[in-house]
Amino acid sequence: MTALLSIRGVEAAYGAIVALKGVDLEVNQGEIVTLIGSNGAGKSTLMMTIFGNPRARRGSIAFDGRDITALPTHEIARLRIAQSPEGRRIFPRMTVYENLQMGAELDGAAHFREDLERMLAIFPRLKERLHQRGGTMSGGEQQMLAIARALMARPRLLLLDEPSLGLAPLIAKQIFAVVADLNRREGMTVFLVEQNAYHALKLAHRGYVMVTGQITMSGTGAELLANPDVKAAYLEGGAH
Questions:
Q1: Which of 33, 189, 194, 213 has its CA 20 to 30 A from that of 234?
Q2: In a domain, 1, yes or no
Q3: Which domain holds residue 109?
Q4: How many CB atoms lie within 10 A of CB 135?
Q5: Where does the record place the ABC transporter domain (predicted)?
Q6: What residue spans of the chain are helical by DSSP H?
């Protein structure tokens, strides 16, 4: 398998606080890989470091064989890496349609009409809300919009940061089903940071466990689901 994203010995810090302490991780073409860990473990920091904010102090990040460690964020996005960040961060005053236009800008909007139709087929709820302001929608609808906006850029790698955060279990399940479908039908490569370890590991081909800025365990999704340490730390009561 070819590593599409390769992270080697990455350290990152906020001032004096070291958030990542020599992280090694890779995501192969066509895989769903998840990173699980408790709150404050450094998962979201790793996501943001891939995009150059904060910058890696040590180590390297490569995408499709190219070193992107020192590239500016907008150039990283141009390589067709798209992110749906934690907390959704849609443009609340813009309509659903305008939000999706913003996602397509990187692609020069060349395929806008075709991609818009595709997003509305994947997320039928957004079709009903197309001319509604993003900020007036439910949390689940906003999460659908955040993912759809990222997909409008036709990414080769989709980074999803806490997609189920704050969502009702049923809506979270729908979101995970969409991700599984994108991977199965289109071969979409996905790197997923998620606190709901049970759903994330059920979905992922492989997973990593992060504890205080370090990778402490890795394996297939099934291996980690069955691991007694993972069960005790992350899965008690998590299977819903």
A1: 189
A2: no
A3: 94-155
A4: 11
A5: 5-237
A6: 43-50, 73-78, 96-104, 112-122, 124-128, 139-151, 169-186, 197-203, 221-226, 228-230
